[in-house]
């Protein structure tokens, strides 16, 4: 019997999420801020590109001003195609960096540069690069939730909407994969495609907190509900899903499935769009075990919550919080992102929800 050598997996750093601080505004302050932001955006030829996990205020403002609310794949596409000279990215750091990588000539601002992601933080570029060096025979595929430096080390960047198809494509070519940073999404992609994948051991603090046993009980209490699960969740939670997909795919399912009730295992910021595209339907948060248990985020990302109208107005006033990436890193990172965008365009993956709100 042939003995396979043991592969030493690097240990991802333990990530401590910041405390949740959500913006609280009176109606009159909110209205004043929105009017000021709109004026500044017009003056500065700026467009707002926001993620589904940001607040309802930010999402509404993006749509009202001709911007975009979407997943990270569509955010990248939209910012790239839009003629605005300034992109304001309301989301987390890797999204701002991706916008800058694709648009070096544009000014990219973010409401808060501390808004990060546990997956990005769990994959330091130096350690990751050393791990890649140990496995030169493998194609390096990284999730979009990584730093510019990690993308620069990768052969491919993928999003949750493109991961399965891209890995499938590589697997058919006989390639072995080195995957980072999300162990749960990597496990899901590995099981779905059958590809040979080495998985980095990062996790999303929001999705990791969903609990299968409690979800099973919730399903029994709501037998007509469809369960929608983002694949950054643990395998036992994914196993209970009716639909597994990216945020855009889950919103599409909420809109098109005949069910009136949905149990949703992803950040609860997505409910704003789900309610807009499927008004009258009922959306319930999948259980994270609640008070006193292990839930770190309770279905909302503390870094996404750092985006708010006050900070948005402030960066437009001051020009602070601009994203900068060195050209050697950018020019390497853009190849792996562009590869994904070209593949997604060819395969027509994850079309944007139109007329949704
Ligand atoms: S929800 Fe998870 S994956 Fe998304 S930004 Fe927050 S920590 Fe990262």
TrEMBL record:
Catalytic activity line of the entry: iminosuccinate + dihydroxyacetone phosphate = quinolinate + phosphate + 2 H2O + H(+)
InterPro entries, per the entry: NadA, NadA_sf
Cofactor: [4Fe-4S] cluster
Localization per Swiss-Prot or TrEMBL: Cytoplasm
GO MF entries: 4 iron, 4 sulfur cluster binding; metal ion binding; quinolinate synthetase A activity
UniProt-listed GO biological process terms: 'de novo' NAD+ biosynthetic process from L-aspartate
EC number, as in UniProt: 2.5.1.72
Pathway: Cofactor biosynthesis; NAD(+) biosynthesis; quinolinate from iminoaspartate: step 1/1
Keyword tags: 4Fe-4S, Cytoplasm, Iron, Iron-sulfur, Metal-binding, Pyridine nucleotide biosynthesis, Transferase
Keyword Lyase: no
Superkingdom to which the source organism belongs: Bacteria
Iron-sulfur listed as a keyword: yes
Annotated GO CC locations: cytosol
Function: Catalyzes the condensation of iminoaspartate with dihydroxyacetone phosphate to form quinolinate.
PANTHER family given in the database record: QUINOLINATE SYNTHASE, CHLOROPLASTIC (PTHR30573:SF0), QUINOLINATE SYNTHETASE A (PTHR30573)
NCBIfam families according to UniProt: nadA (TIGR00550), PRK09375.1-1 (NF006877), PRK09375.1-2 (NF006878)
Protein name: Quinolinate synthase
Origin organism lineage: Bacteria, Pseudomonadati, Pseudomonadota, Betaproteobacteria, Nitrosomonadales
């Amino acid at each position: 019997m042939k003995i396979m050598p043991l592969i030493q997996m690097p240990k991802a750093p333990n990530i401590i999420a910041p405390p949740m601080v959500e913006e609280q505004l009176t109606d009159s302050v909110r209205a004043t801020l929105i009017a000021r932001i709109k004026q500044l955006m017009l003056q500065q030829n700026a467009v707002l590109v926001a993620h589904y996990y940001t607040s309802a205020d930010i999402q509404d403002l993006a749509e009202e001003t001709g911007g975009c609310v979407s997943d990270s794949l569509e955010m990248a596409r939209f910012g790239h195609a839009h003629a605005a000279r300034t992109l304001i990215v309301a989301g987390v750091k890797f999204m701002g960096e991706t916008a800058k990588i694709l648009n070096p000539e544009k000014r990219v601002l973010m409401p808060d540069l501390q808004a990060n992601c546990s997956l990005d933080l769990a994959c330091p570029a130096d350690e990751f690069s050393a791990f890649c060096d140990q496995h030169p025979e493998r194609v390096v595929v990284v999730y979009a939730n990584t730093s510019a430096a990690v993308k620069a080390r990768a052969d491919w960047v993928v999003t949750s909407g493109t991961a399965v198809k891209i890995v499938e494509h590589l697997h058919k070519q006989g390639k072995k994969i080195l995957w980072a940073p999300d162990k749960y999404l990597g496990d899901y992609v590995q099981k779905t495609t059958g590809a040979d994948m080495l998985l980095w051991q990062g996790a999303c603090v929001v999705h990791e907190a969903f609990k299968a046993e409690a979800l099973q009980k919730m399903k029994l209490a709501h037998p007509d509900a469809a369960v929608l699960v983002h694949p950054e969740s643990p395998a036992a939670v994914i196993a209970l899903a009716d639909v597994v997909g990216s945020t855009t795919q889950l919103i599409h399912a909420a809109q098109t499935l005949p069910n009136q009730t949905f149990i949703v295992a992803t950040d609860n910021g997505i409910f704003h769009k789900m309610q807009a595209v499927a008004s009258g339907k009922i959306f319930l948060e999948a259980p994270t075990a609640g008070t006193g248990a292990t839930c770190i985020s309770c279905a909302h990302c503390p870094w996404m919550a750092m985006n708010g109208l006050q900070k948005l107005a402030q960066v437009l006033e001051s020009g602070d919080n601009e994203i900068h990436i060195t050209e050697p890193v950018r020019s390497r990172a853009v190849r792996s992102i562009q590869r994904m965008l070209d593949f997604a365009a060819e395969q027509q993956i994850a079309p944007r929800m139109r007329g949704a709100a």
